[in-house]
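Reminder: ligand-aware prediction takes two inputs, not one.
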Amino acid sequence: MTARSSLYLTLSGTLGFFVGCGGAGSDDSDCQPGTYLCECLSGICQVGLVCTGTVCVNPTGGDDTTGPGDGDGDGDTGPTGPGDGDGDTGPGDGDGDTGPTGDGDGDTGPTGDGDGDGDLDDDADGIPNNQDNCPSDYNPNQLDFDNKGGGNVCDVLEFTTVTGTLQTTWVTNAVFIDCEEPVSWVVTGGSVSVQLDDDAAVASFEINTLEIADFSAVCDDFVTAEFVFDDPSVNADGPAFPVDVNHSFVAHNNGTISGSSDAPHPMLLLSDGQINIINQRPTMANWMLQGQLWTFNANITGGGSSGTLSWNAPNVETTYPEVIVIQTVDFEVYFKGLSGTLNLAP
Ligand SMILES: [Ca+2]
Ligand SMILES: [Ca+2]
Ligand SMILES: [Ca+2]
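Here is what comes back for the chain with calcium ion:
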């Protein structure tokens, strides 16, 4: 101990910046890890430490308290920072942080930054999530018919303003009554949905509902009977309606859909109806006439800003006639034919 003290005193007297370092005690009790201490100049550090250059370090790791970036791989728990390969949460260090992108880890920051990290593509269509106009649906073409930001495959065109007039014929067949009476469906509201594909090859239509003004039909061929429909509506019956409507890339880019449906649209005609027959007026609540809206021509323009649906099927009958029993007489009722045009707007 005497020799070490002599050496320390000699050097401190020669190199002025070490004067006072380590204190007057000149033993090694204050030689802390990572610090420059006078004792290191003699290669002597606190017990358990070794002198590297002029710094006392832990030769086995795990116990120092140094900061980041010291390259000692000791898993320190000192202040965090990048570049030290430890468990901190700073960016740029290749660890498990969730900081800004560009650090090669599992970040969730902005995509397309070329860092090959968390630029996720959930639907595997080659478009990163935050650039994908339908991040959960495969749509590599990214087509957007209405230019509202959502891609076609996850964006339904909704027409909720539906007006126009359709002509049809109310048919009543019974033992002594067999009449056909033309009636008009004045459509006052409703909704029509159109779904497009990303490849501009297929469209589907669904006439969800058509609100119709009250109407009545009178049959007087043999017995006068009046059928009154209160608050009638045509509702879709069944799944969304597939149609084969031409919709090419050119038509898509022009903002148009035009073509004809290729199958009748399943529907229910609902009404709180009444029958007035020979001065008797039974109330027929909740009429439900199952049937079909026949094939139509569709013409949608302006990327969905307006459209028309038109029918020209004057002689097609509903598939399922309704049978109404009045005073033991069976009346078979149905609609025949549909023609006219409905105007659609969002
Ligand atoms: Ca995608
Ligand atoms: Ca997509
Ligand atoms: Ca869209």
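The pocket of calcium ion (ligand 1) is lined by residues 121, 123, 125, 127, 129, 132, 135 (CB under 6 Å). Residues 2-57 form one domain. We will return to this case in the review session.
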